Amino acid sequence: xxxxxxxxxxxxxxxxxxxxxxxxxxxxxxxxxxxxxxxxxxxxxxxxxxxxxxxxxxxxxxxxxxxxxxxxxxxxxxxxxxxxxxxxx
Length: 89
Known about the structure:
alpha+beta, Ubiquitin-like (UB roll), five-stranded mixed beta sheet, 5 strands
């Protein structure tokens, strides 16, 4: 099944790309999706999401408009947004 993943901020997937579509197994948890993305995009991606032991507390993960936890099970056509801290002014 396919899900869309968007990172709000500088491109982390590929230059100029902030949203990707990725094929995953049905029922995959957010945690497992993040590990798949680490395998694909490497240590730079990992350091944006995790410290040495756990997910960074200031990263917000939203699926279809609702904040979710790491054990949330994904469904077909879900839209995942990774929100790092940001400010404006």
